[in-house]
């Protein structure tokens, strides 16, 4: 998709469709007003007749509006001022995109005059418009014999005042890159477990490396992980015929002496639970158990495209969790790369088992910060539902930065405590640590487990179990969260380190 900033007169703009806002109670926004004047009151007449009242996300497509060059005008309700939060703004963008797609248009021009969102930050408004319009263009048809109708839209223009042009250009560049990152993550999440295996994830990472000079990818196989002593990670794949992989994506956007930020993703390409087998109902959704890995790949894709001036290392711990005669059994004890031993009381708590070795490995990069992203616990869905990512951290400043990035990116997280009190739930009679801490505070004890491997650096954990995909019905599919949060965090970091 070609995104472009334009500052010319809207009435003489060449486009298949001008998209203008109508405030609550049929108020004309400035761009709507300009069209109204050029057309001798055509819009006010329609508004007076009450065909559209300006309720949030209401739409009305008008054809052959007199006095303008564009072929159509789409009126979009913006709702009341003070009620145009991110959530409503996104609905407005989606409503407009639905009309554009349904009418099979090739080009469209958004002219909201900065009024579609309450927040007056032009960069943020344009970036979100770009990201969210981009998200509406994603459609999954990879494994369908009948392909989706192609979306014909080729160009989206965004109208901005001349003096905001530079800000707007940055916003659409960043927005388009983040939107690509989100689509990358969604696509990987949506692919089934028989296609998206650990080796497939490795190939996708290698392809990213081939595309950008700034990205170098190394894939460690099982023998190499064995050498490193990653017996915990390897124990998860023992029951599977698919070999486990540790994928390291090294992005260099800054000088060699700049210490990197490290992202670590859980890449369980299918989680049956192993010998601690999950119930059958809804088990297909455990193909999404690699969404942490997908968000790392999506974020690396976006930052490479943006050319963010930071060094960032993405690490993906990829394995398939299956039962078999060779599978790890409850009670088995493994030695992690860190030397700590783990009693695996439940083979379904496998995410932490792959992450712990990847987190130990992360230490060799002498990271400034490490953030892991994982669909780690069902308990996180009980705690925070499907709206907020769970955030736990051993560093208050890092936690605050991630929370703020989530707010800015409209990809919110919420912090849970990581107090020492919870650590005792992981005591084991037979090993240094057990891999489960019982039912109470399941998200926290999972993070406590990880915290045993992250003492050497500033670390945060994002539990995306509730937000990484939508279940059931027409909406079922991966969301691409939390690519926007991670990109925003890294963009902020690069701005501050300059
Ligand atoms: N991948 C699951 C977590 C999960 C479950 C995410 C449902 C999204 C929806 C994870 O590997 C898991 O099975 N966790 C267990 C941990 C328990 C055994 C301590 C869980 O949450 O039940
Ligand atoms: Mn599991
Ligand atoms: Zn899992």
Task: Describe, in plain words, how this protein is organized in 3D.
The protein is α/β, with parallel strands linked by helices and 498 residues long. It has 2 domains: 2-160, Leucine Aminopeptidase, subunit E, domain 1, CATH 3.40.220.10; 180-497, 3-Layer(aba) Sandwich (Aminopeptidase), CATH 3.40.630.10. The protein is 35% helix and 21% strand. The protein has helices at residues 30-38, 42-49, 86-102, 122-135, 165-190, 198-211, 222-228, 231-237, 291-306, 351-362, 378-384, 396-408, 442-451, 483-497; strands at 2-6, 18-23, 27-28, 59-63, 72-79, 107-111, 155-159, 215-220, 245-252, 261-271, 311-321, 332-335, 341-344, 369-374, 389-393, 413-415, 433-434, 459-463, 469-470, 477-478. The strands form 4 sheets. The protein has an 8-stranded mixed sheet with strand order 8-9-11-10-14-18-15-16, sandwiched between helices. Strands 1, 2, 3, 4, 5, 6 and 7 form a 7-stranded mixed sheet that branches. A 3-stranded mixed sheet has the order 12-13-17, with helices on one face. The chain starts with a strand and ends with a helix.
